Protein: Transposase IS4 family protein
Amino acid sequence: MLELTKKYSIKKIGDLKDFITVTYVLIDDIYQEITPTHIKERRNINKSILSDSKIITISIVGELLTIDSEKAWLGFCKKNLKDLFPRFSHRTRFNRTRRALHSVIDAIRKELTSKLGFRDKSFRIVDSIPIPVCKFGRACFHKSFKVDSAYGYCASKKETYYGFKLHAITTIEGFITVFILTPANIDDREAVWELIDDYNSITTVGDKGYTSKHLPSQLQS
Structure:
C-alpha cells in the first residue's frame, strides 16, 4: 500500500508516473471505442478540467494502490503529478463526475476482461467475502450505510457482522470477471443468479455455501 505521508524518491514517483501513463492509454483507448456519443459529447464536456479518461484513471490507480482516502490520494496527485495533470478539478466535482461515469467504468472493465481473454474461460470460481462497515459493537450507532447495509453471518470466522457482502466470479487464475455488492444478509445462492446472468455456458465451482438440492439443476437449465 502506498503510504501518502512518506517523502518519495524520484525513482518511486517516476515508476508511479509510468504506471499511470500506461493505465491511462489503455483506459482511454477502450473509452473512445465503447463509450456512447451522448456521453462523450455531453453538454459542457469541453469545459471540463479533467477528461473522463483521466478521472477514471486516477480513481482506478488509487484503488489499485489500496488507498482508502480519496482526499489524501487527490492531494498526493496534485502535489506530485503536476506534469501528468497540470490542472485539477475540485474534489466535489471530481467525485460527482466519477460517480456519473459508473456505467462507463463497468463497461471498460467488461471490455478489458474480454481483451485479456478471460471472458471465454470455461471454468470459474464463485465465492463471497464479508465487508463489515464498522465494529460489531458500533453497528447500532452507525448511520453512513444504514439504508443499504444489514446484519450477516460469516461462517468461516463464525461471527455476525454488520455491513455488506461481496459476491464474485473469478477465473481459475483469480481474475475477477463479475461481481456484485449486496447487504450482508443476502444468501450466496440467491446472489449467484445475478452473477451468471451474462453467461451462456460456464462451469462454476463453489464452497458449501452454495449447496442446495435444486440449485445445480436450476443452473443447468
